[in-house]
Every structure is written in structure tokens, then in C-alpha cells.
């Protein structure tokens, strides 16, 4: 898949360099040298994405593709739809907050993939789309006639992206690609526990983040692997098993979160000069003169006693007071905020990280907006997460060109199946 995507990107780049706007990959997209006009052209305008994903790993990735201009067609089973629609409380009207958080800028169609007619319809949609994203168990879509080998025969243009913990059906242990199972199997769940602040430990979605990067910028794969190489190297070369460090850095002291009088903050000293600055801010200058704290290597060896001294001092002042004292010292430092504090931060609102929109059944809703910003274009007004099958008629009519009679017959068939 990566080689195929690289080939496509190389072709597009060549067309751009040659000024060849007649290139098949660019025909659907407006092309202009006017800077002001480019502000209205999003990177993926004209790209169609067939979204066969559920839950979090996948919906998050396809939502970002939608933010960037792609037309995302989300396929859901008739009736209950995506499982996360029922994951609550909290609910906003009839929809779960979980579902609303990762499904903006999408169209929903209700199709039963297990029915031959439903699979046939999705196959036809694949011929009209550029990208297909799915997170079924390996082999499951093959059984429905919707696997890569099958669809590539009728839709050779499709970029087929599969999100799975397991490489093939032979290695499957009857588990889906949920972040929780990935965390336990990959040792990350064990390492993510925060020893000093257990109440701050949260489960976080992994697969969704990795998949978006590998789909849109596949070379980030090397970065993702690099993030874990030091853990692997410690074990492979020294037989050293990774331990739970919580917010702390295994190889740097101090570099972790600390309790304050009214909250938490994180402070890092990546070199000796920064450590001396930390001591000065804390009015513990004598620590910088003690031989066993002179170098980072020695500080790591005497981690426990040093952190006890620092922790006791941090408890004496408020988070804001410590942040004020650390200003202009060159020491990395910042608050560990609660969710309420995060979304109350004026900078969050200024950066457009909160999106508000009107939902058909839930009324006015607010969700976290895209964190990435681009200088060459602005995100358009978002569309709200869809209700189940909200765009079925629109997609059948506008994307597949079905007549009204055919559409009505299909809707009757879907309703009949669901009633049975």
C-alpha cells in the first residue's frame, strides 16, 4: 500500500512541476496560482473516501481526511449503526458524545455488508472512490467479497487501507484492532501506568493516530518505530526490561511531573545547566554543589532521594507561582491541566480547537477541532456527525447515479431486512 501511495504522490508531484493540470489525478481539483484563491482549496478536495471503519481506530483517521477536504462516505449497518453510537453516557440528545467526537465531516449510508446486495453496492461505491479504510478482523471482508484482492480487480485505482493488530488471518487470536488490546500485547499498557499520579492515568487511542499518519504521510512510519527503539535497544543489548516510570523519564533526572500546592506541573532538565537552574528556582542551590548530583548519570543513580527533596519543595507553592518563577529560565516547564482547564484556556479557543455545529437530533454540539494548522488554506465550516443512513439517498443518487425507482426499491429492501 505504501509503494502504491508513493507512486501516486510522485505522479501528482510531477504533474504539478510540469504545470500539467490535465493529469488524471488533478482533474477533479481546482488549480490556481492565486494565493488568495488557494485559501479556499483544501488539500483533499475532490478525493472520495469509502469508510468501512467502526469505533475509534479508523473513524478518527477518516475524520481528519474529511477535515482536509475529502468526501467521506461512512458505511454503517442498518439499525444500530456504529457501535459507539450506544457508548454512553454521556449522550447529547440521542447520540453518544463518543460517536460525535470522531465522526464530523462524513456522510452516512446504511448498508448490510453481509447481504450479497449490500456487498455489491459497496463494491460499486469502491469503483467511484479513491481510498477505502477498514478495521475489520483480517479475512472478514474477504468472506463478504470486499477484500483487497477482490476490490482491486474492479477498482484498481483504490488505495486500500486496513487497520489491524494482526498481519493475516493465520495470526488472529479472535481479537479486533482496539487500542486496549494493542496496549496490553505491546507492553504499553504496563508502561503507561503513572506511579506518582495514578488518578491521572488514562487509556489512550493508539491505532487511530498511527493509521492516519501511515495513510496520509506513510513515511512517518519510521518516526513511529523510532519512538520505541530505545526501549527495544535496552532489552536487546542489556537484557533490561522496561519499567513503569509514569510521567518520569527513565534516563533523565529530574524530568517528570510534580505535585504542587494546588495541582501538578511537569519540569524537565535535559542537561546539567538546566538542573542548576531548577535548583536556583527552587532555592535549593546547595543541591547543585553536592557531588552525587553533579551529572545526569549520577542523578539517575540517586533518583529516589533527589526526587524526594524536589517533590517536597514543589508542594510549598501553587502551580501558577512555580510557572511564574520558571519563566525565562530556559527550563522546560508546564502545567498538567484537567480537561476543564484545557478547554478554558484562551489559547485553545484562539487556535480554533473547539468546533461548534448544529446536529439534526442533538442540537448545538461542541467537539475538539483539528490540531494541525496550515498556512496555505483554512478549514471550512464543519458538517455535524451524521445520523444513521442520513445520506443514503444522496449517495445512491449523486455518487452512483441510481434512479428514484431503484433507490426506493433499495430503501424498501433495507427496511424489510431490518424489520426481520
UniProtKB/TrEMBL annotation:
GO MF entries: succinate-hydroxymethylglutarate CoA-transferase activity
Keyword Plastid in record: no
Origin superkingdom: Eukaryota
Transmembrane segments: 215-236
Gene3D superfamilies: Crotonobetainyl-coa:carnitine coa-transferase, domain 1
Alphabetic keyword roster: Membrane, Transferase, Transmembrane, Transmembrane helix
InterPro entries in UniProt: CoA-transferase_III_domain, CoA-Trfase_fam_III, CoA-Trfase_III_dom_1_sf
Gene Ontology CC: one annotated term: mitochondrion
Coiled-coil ranges per UniProt: none
Keyword Transferase (UniProt): yes
Family (UniProt): Belongs to the CoA-transferase III family.
Name of this protein: Succinyl-CoA:glutarate-CoA transferase
The organism of origin for this protein: Astyanax mexicanus
Amino acid at each position: 500500500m505504501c509503494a502504491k501511495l508513493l507512486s501516486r504522490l510522485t505522479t501528482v508531484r510531477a504533474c504539478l512541476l510540469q504545470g500539467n493540470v490535465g493529469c488524471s489525478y488533478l482533474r477533479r481539483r481546482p488549480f490556481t496560482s492565486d494565493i488568495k484563491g488557494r485559501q479556499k482549496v483544501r488539500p483533499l478536495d475532490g478525493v472520495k473516501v469509502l469508510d468501512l471503519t467502526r469505533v475509534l481506530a479508523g473513524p478518527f483517521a477518516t475524520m481528519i481526511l474529511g477535515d482536509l477536504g475529502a468526501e467521506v462516505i461512512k458505511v454503517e449497518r442498518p439499525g444500530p449503526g456504529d457501535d459507539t453510537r450506544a457508548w454512553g453516557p454521556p449522550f447529547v440528545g440521542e447520540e453518544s458524545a463518543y460517536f460525535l467526537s470522531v465522526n464530523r465531516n462524513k456522510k452516512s449510508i446504511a448498508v448490510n455488508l453481509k447481504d450479497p446486495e449490500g456487498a455489491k453496492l459497496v463494491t460499486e461505491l469502491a469503483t467511484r472512490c479513491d481510498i477505502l479504510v477498514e478495521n475489520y478482523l483480517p479475512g472478514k471482508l474477504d468472506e463478504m467479497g470486499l477484500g483487497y484482492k477482490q476490490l482491486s480487480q474492479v477498482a484498481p485505482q483504490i488505495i486500500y487501507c486496513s487497520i489491524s493488530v494482526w498481519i493475516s488471518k493465520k495470526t488472529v487470536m479472535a481479537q479486533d484492532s482496539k487500542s486496549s488490546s494493542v496496549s496490553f500485547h505491546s507492553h504499553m499498557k504496563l508502561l503507561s501506568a503513572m506511579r506518582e499520579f495514578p488518578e491521572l492515568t488514562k487509556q489512550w487511542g493508539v491505532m487511530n493516530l498511527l493509521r492516519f499518519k501511515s495513510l496520509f504521510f506513510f513515511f512517518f512510519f519510521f518516526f513511529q518505530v523510532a519512538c520505541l527503539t530505545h526501549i527495544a535497544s535496552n532489552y536487546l543489548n542489556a537484557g533490561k526490561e522496561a519499567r513503569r516510570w509514569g510521567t518520569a523519564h527513565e534516563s533523565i533526572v529530574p524530568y517528570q511531573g510534580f505535585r504542587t500546592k494546588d495541582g501538578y506541573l511537569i519540569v524537565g532538565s535535559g542537561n546539567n545547566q538546566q538542573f542548576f537552574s531548577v535548583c536556583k528556582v527552587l532555592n535549593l542551590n546547595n543541591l547543585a554543589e553536592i557531588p552525587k548530583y553533579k551529572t545526569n548519570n549520577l542523578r539517575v543513580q540517586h533518583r529516589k532521594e533527589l526526587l524526594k527533596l524536589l517533590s517536597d519543595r514543589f508542594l510549598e507553592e501553587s502551580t501558577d507561582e512555580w510557572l511564574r518563577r520558571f519563566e525565562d529560565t530556559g527550563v522546560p516547564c508546564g502545567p498538567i491541566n484537567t480537561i476543564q482547564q484545557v478547554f478554558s484556556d484562551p489559547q485553545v479557543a484562539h487556535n480554533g480547537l473547539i468546533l461548534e455545529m448544529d446536529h439534526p437530533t442533538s442540537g448545538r454540539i461542541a467537539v475538539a477541532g483539528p490540531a494541525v494548522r496550515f498556512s496555505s488554506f483554512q478549514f471550512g465550516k464543519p458538517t455535524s456527525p451524521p445520523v444513521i443512513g442520513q445520506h443514503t439517498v444522496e449517495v445512491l443518487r449523486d455518487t452512483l447515479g441510481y434512479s428514484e425507482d431503484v433507490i426506493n426499491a433499495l430503501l424498501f429492501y433495507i427496511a424489510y431486512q431490518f424489520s426481520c
